[in-house]
Amino acid sequence: MTGWWPIVILLCAAAEMLGPNGARSALEVRLWVHLPSETPAGSTIRVKLWGKYSIPSAGSQTFAWTQELDRGPDGRFTTRLLFAGPAEIEFHFSRGDVESRECGPQGQSSPERRLRIDAPREVELWVARWCDLGPARTKGPRVSEHRIDSILDGRRFWVYLPPDYEGTDPGHPVLYMLDGQNLFDDQTSFAGEWRVDEICDDLIAAGRIQDLIVVGVDNGGERRLEEYSPWPDARMARGGGGVEHLRAIVEELKPWIDGHYRIEGGAASTGFAGSSLGGLMALYVAREYTDVFARVGALSPSLWWDGGHILEGWDRPPPSEMRLWIDMGTREGTPSSGVEEEGPRDGLRRLRKLRLRLLEAGFVESDQLRVVEIEGGEHHEGAWSARLPELLQFLFPALDPESRPTREVSHEH
Asked: What does pTM read for this prediction?
């Protein structure tokens, strides 16, 4: 059943639900839907809904219908849903058939959306991708993908090799990065890739960073919050799997990388970086894994996690070879968990407090520590990509930039 008829039926079934002036007291929900950029022009967008609603005289009733969305002047699609009483619904969006329904951000089949309706409301939603469409692969020719059963339970990891890797250099520094699916390839990214391979190519060619190997480790999808938190958040009663995840990276993945690539070796040539909760993990690494990683980048770290727990425990001076980059944008707002309403000033307040703790612990600013407040900086993949060149130049500066020739680098995919 499509169109407005199902809604009319629902309203008629609730005829006794009248307000003080005789007006029907239906619950109205307005959906506002953002579509991915690859959506073909002129597409018809539909929402398929099913579930149950409750009215006093009839009890619980089930329903199912499909409804077409209208395009608004701002590019969003919208539709109005009317329910005779409180409802629990499941739904998904499509361009008309099963093959063209929405998918998750990495092209995976996504679970049905769920919504409980007990009051009028407006809901803003994003469609990540369409199952029958997808962006072209954008990873460079020197980025490889690997899955090995004995490493991180077969999770994918990526390896970027510098342009002259096949040359005579006996060893290369290595940077391990979290959220690997977002680093190299639009097809696997959540909201656009970081362009790590292109950025490294350009900086190496310009003689600004060392000939760096980058290893990207995919996050665990729904397990990301668990894996990217060293301890639970007391209010959420979730998290705390980060220590075990780091153990697997250090004891399973790193030995494999060391054994299969020409690695310089040593903490001073080994880095670790992440953003958001991944940035929280990077700070934990800078505090607890200094014998393994001495080049650490924390982009927009989730300093709010567990009430700012990561701000404590900095009571040991850092190794002399340590370099720690921490940044945060002035327009970063509420954390994605929605647990703690925190605006930009709260995040920057914690960042400044952490900086003071690190200086008290013995970090030397400029040489070992760079704490950066990015004016206008936001909390998303594009913002972190824009900050990456400066971060890499701080963590892995070219050893002798004057003597390195400038090379032309191809960005063919």
From this structure: 0.69
